[in-house]
Amino acid sequence: MKQSFAEIFSRWEEEHSEEKKNKKSKTEETRHVSPVVSKPFSDIYSQWENIHDEKRAIEESKSFSEPEADHSPTISELRRMKVQDCLDLHEKFLEQSLELTEKFIDSSWEKGYRKIRIITGKGIHSPGGEAVLRPSVIKAVKKNRHVREYDLNPPASEGGSGAIILILKENK
Predict the structure, then answer these.
(1) Which tens digit of pLDDT belongs to each residue from 65-85?
(2) β-pairing, 85-88 with 147-151?
């Protein structure tokens, strides 16, 4: 009878935990005696590998397609998902940035993307230190018909206050 890897691993864990319990329960006098060692994990894995064709299993798993979701992702799921595309507007002028922003949002929506990022920068290099690009891009984002939600201050890992995260409406 073939055992699954999980069953073999569980058995190894049980043996391993028993070994740890035995080590802890020994008194000071018996600590100098070498402990009984169960099979190392590599032996357990080798045993499983001899019974199963791992490469074939991997290829078979690749051939299965994910079942179609019956529902659209929730807004919480969309907020947690990774950004699917990004537009960096550093070094761009205002008019060019607004045009690129519109095209980027529309193109992303047409591709079926749900979460995108636009990097505007903070505007610290603008004349007088007053941001020009960011406020204009925010206005364009707010007006775009494909935008469901936007985050103007995402976590630093997603661009921080120099980026805008957009969640797009579903393209049906």
Answers:
(1) 555 556 788 999 999 999 999
(2) unpaired
